[in-house]
Amino acid sequence: MSAAERTVLRLARPYLGRLLGAGLLAAATEFAGLALMATATWLLMSAAGRPPLDRLTVAIVAVRALAIGRGVFRYTERLAGHDAVLRMVTDVRARVFATLAGRRDAARPRTGDALSRLVSDVDAVQDLLLRVLVPGAAAALVSVLAVAGATAVSPAAAGVLAVGLLVAGVGLPVAATALTRRAADEVAPLRGALAADAIDLTHGAADLAAFGATGYALDAAAGRARRLARLERRLAATGFAVDAAGVLVAGATAGAVVVIALRAGVGGVLVGVLAVGALTAVEVALALVGAARQRAGLRAGLVRVAALLAAPAAERPEPSAAPAATVVDAPHDVRFDRVTVRYRSDAAPALDGFALDLPAGRRVAVVGPSGAGKSTLAAVLTGAVRSDSGRVTLDGVDLSAYPPEELPRAVGGLLAEAYVFHATVRENLLLGRPGADEAELADAARAAGLLDWVRAQPAGWDTVVGEEGGQLSGGQRQRLALARALLAAPRVLVLDEPTEGLDPAAADAVLASALAATPAGHSVLLISHRLSGLAGLDEIVVLDAGRVAQRGRHAELVATPGWYRDQWLLQEAAERGYLALTPRP
Predict the structure, then answer these.
(1) Residue 284 neighbours by CB distance under 10 Å
(2) pTM beyond 0.85, yes or no
(3) Phi then psi for 436, rounded to 5 degrees?
(4) If exposure means fewest CB atoms within 10 Å of the residue's CB, which of 119, 272, 374, 377 is most exposed?
(5) How large is the angle between the packed helices 134-153 and 16-47, nearest 10 degrees?
(6) β-bridge partners, 394
């Protein structure tokens, strides 16, 4: 068993009893089928001699019982197996999603590849259990029972049957694995690349056309698609050849069993039973060929999943050894104590010894040039990124001590690239507070400057916004995400570029209304590239290369030479020019 399989199967330990039950039921299903064929053969051949009916009664009842029992066993095996596997896959998918979401920028996969890992590769875990381990174990157990049953009739014939079962259950699976491994290892990465191509060609069609790269992107995607098709045809041809060999092995084994049984003096009826039983037993053993081929095809996907499950602690948060803290519905004090974050060990830190006190009710803005570490700061505060050194505390308790499902009640808001789902306006907003009524939705939308647009739509709150908000403008998507953050109303509200995509006048109005809508006692951490509208905040922190370059109130910073005053003058001049060129209604 490979290291990737061992890593994945460790997660199956809580469900081992269910999986063992499913395996035994699968073996009972196959054994019932084998016994059914043997009993039916004995019944038909015996009935040809017209014996008294009472000699056939037990066989008739047995055939009926085995036929019904086989169906019952199959149903319960599928029920038990899928119940255990779906529980496990739910856990695996949650862990993979958490790892992908927590990946730092340098290691984060592209959207299409991430989707492939979350769906196709995690499905490989399910197939490993349902299509490899359970049927493989059942086939091996039934093969042993078949040889034991044949031994009771003719030891010599049982020896021939054992050889045939070894060829079908060991030799052919080894050959199938050797023939398909190399091609199967390339399939999962190619599927991930094609998923990324599909995302690029659909969502990036306009950009590709603008740069004249549509043909190049189509050719690259078509090349990968042809490569994948060739690999899948090769795997199909190999599978056909192995299956054909399996049919030959089954026929040869049955024929050899008949010859040996006749030479050993076995009676005519029992020879027929041995022949049909041998055919059925080899067919059961051939399930190991399918399991081996399936295992080879799953190998690459399992390796990708195992790599995520075994991600270093720096990439996936580890559970705290201390008792989990509880979020209370009260204002919170936040403190950054010399926080440092590095995305790569050989790169400059995104945050370098950052310190900040954010008491309950205080409103602080963090500004600075692109790449200064502003979004990293928001990610650290919301628990999306862990610091390499230093600590962030909430009411004196380390942020990592709070359960991930409770932390958003205390700290949350509008982060960079907030996702808008392909759903209605109402459904997108209710993600912030599932139980909100229409009046609360209206208050949040009004504060974000979205209410007039919603009321102007024919469907109102039930307007579908499209995939990733594709039916909305950039400003409308931002207002919708801001309204959702305001509706959630966390005690520490983080607003990362809340007015991005809005013109200066609208941006000032939306920022002012959003701050006014924040309940008293709730803290606000505002991250913005615009300096307008910050005069009423308690403190402004200027970041540069992850360090605090300046801090103070707006009036103090404007009067002090430095980045803030220079940027303020530039933005003021630019916005005056914009207003002068903008036609008035």
Answers:
(1) 27
(2) no
(3) -70, 140
(4) 119
(5) 40
(6) 334, 397
